[in-house]
Amino acid sequence: MPVMDPNLKKTCVKTTKDVRIIPASKEVEEIMAAGHEHLFNSLWATTNNPFTLMKLTKLIIDLVNDKKFLDDMASEKFDILIAEPFLLCPFALAEHLKIPVTIAAISSIQFEIVSDIIGEPVLPSFVPGSVSVSKSNMSFFERIKNTLSVIVSRSHFHDGWSKETDVIEEAFGKDFRSYREYMADVSYVFTNAHPYLSYPRPLNRKTLELGGIVVDQSLKDKSNLKVPHC
Prior knowledge:
Helix content is 39%, strand content 7%. The protein is an alpha/beta fold. The chain has a 4-stranded parallel β-sheet, covered by helices on one side.
């Protein structure tokens, strides 16, 4: 687990004992210290500014050049990799480590660029984009704004993944594929959309909407439920 924010090092994982923590590099720590409040206020509050997130690609530089870590991971001989396609790095690492199966897991709704790559139509005239604040019933100008948000989202991922590709090729050689090939090869795309509550949109069988999956409370003794403190 690469650490970006030094304040967020806990995983809350109980059953998995083998968790590898990769400390943040000095450069990343300086970036986070300088712009921590602004970065996360704009990320989680009201401002949709994906260009700010380009800084996150710096996380991969130390990771792909950490030979000891990569050798340790290769010795595990993993069968599957599940990662969020926010960065391309995990999927390139899967190929480098000879992990045969990859799954993209997205903590929000589907990313437009992933839809493009796996063959799902993107329809900004009535489907709100992943960084849009519009609803499905949009005015003409809201549709224009939604379309622009889709274009910005695509541009953000294209630019970020392209820069990552340069770093990956420098570390591993020129034989690695384009980001479109890595995304096209994922077996499934898990999203946090809800199949009944999210806006209707065309999906293929590769995308699985997992939003709303929770523990069946009837199977638990509610008197013993406790709020976990990691």
